[in-house]
Amino acid sequence: MAAPLVLALGGSLLSADEGERNAWLSALTELLSACEVPIGIVVGGGRSAREAIELAKSRGENDVAALDEIGIAATRVNATMVSEILRGAGLDVFIGIPTDVESAAQNLESHRIVAMGGTRPGHTTDNVAICLAIEAKATRCVIATNVGHVYSSDPRLDSAALPIESMTLSELQEIVGPPVHGKAGGSAVIDPIGVQAAIDNNLPLAVLDGSQMNRMRDALAGKPFVGTRIEVG
Ligand code: UTP
Questions:
Q1: pLDDT in tens, 20-53
Q2: pTM value?
Q3: What pLDDT was estimated at residue 45?
Q4: CA of 189 to the centre of ligand 1 (A)
Q5: Which of 15, 65, 85, 118 is the most exposed place for a label (fewest CB within 10 A)?
Q6: What is the pLDDT of residues 149-183, one digit of tens each?
Q7: CA–CA separation, 196 vs 170, rounded Å?
Q8: Among 5, 29, 9, which Cα is nearest to 209's?
Q9: For residue range 176-188, what is the model confidence (pLDDT) as tens digits?
């Protein structure tokens, strides 16, 4: 089979209101049905992860690994939902949710689609997607999230933040900072641990607004897309 691609779906994409979410899942199914290469899909935890982590924190849980486990469980619920929807639509999807990237990569050799969530505490699903792309020898990792681009600084805090069309992995690392897992629940545009793994393994990335299906289609097809292209370097 041709070299696979890996698609990270930020959990926020599954946290839209019901009508929007249904339309998005139908468009995703259509997009993936037309893909000619195997695709590893890594799904984030979104609102349910955040809410469950916050609830545990408010009850006094402050062990980061324990909070991470809550987040991981939420990512796996979302991954199961995506996996079953795609399988129900007739796509060749591996049955089950791999809990490590090695077995996910192995199952991608015999299925068109393998969906998974988190693996272990200490990072987010961005890093899982990047590690799966490395393990499966994918040509690139497309990170679909709820912002259109990587910005020069955090647009929530800095009104002068500018969207970036194209950058290198080292430039991205300057923005996201060193590869550490500070807290459960995440916050950086891309997990800095994943950025380090991409640098170490020369893996190009794409970051885009996953609510815009045409952008995801273009990026998966290797065409110019609206979003941030992150090249090796
Ligand atoms: P997400 O991947 O959804 O991370 O995992 P995030 O950055 O908080 O969410 P987005 O990308 O902004 O939507 C949710 C949480 O689950 C734990 C982490 O605490 C993470 O923040 N997690 C997830 C792990 O500890 N390990 C994993 O492999 C995945």
A1: 999 999 999 999 999 999 999 999 999 999 999 9
A2: 0.97
A3: 97
A4: 12
A5: 65
A6: 999 988 888 999 999 999 999 999 999 999 998 78
A7: 9
A8: 9
A9: 999 998 788 767 8
* Residue 156 token pair: 């929530």
Q: Which amino acid is at 32?
A: L
Rounded Cα gap, residues 192 and 180, in angstroms: 7
Q: Which residue has the tokens 């079953």?
A: 84
Q: Is the dihedral of CA 209, 204, 220, 91 positive or negative?
A: negative
What's 14's DSSP letter? G
Question: Can you say whether residue 56 is alpha, beta or left, with left for phi > 0 and alpha for psi between -120 and 50 degrees?
Answer: alpha
**Best of 62, 125, 195 for a ligand 1 pocket test (most atoms within 8 Å of beta carbon):** 125
Measure the CA dihedral 28/131/109/85, to 10°. Answer: -30
Are 4 and 40 contacting, i.e. CB atoms less than 8 angstroms apart? yes
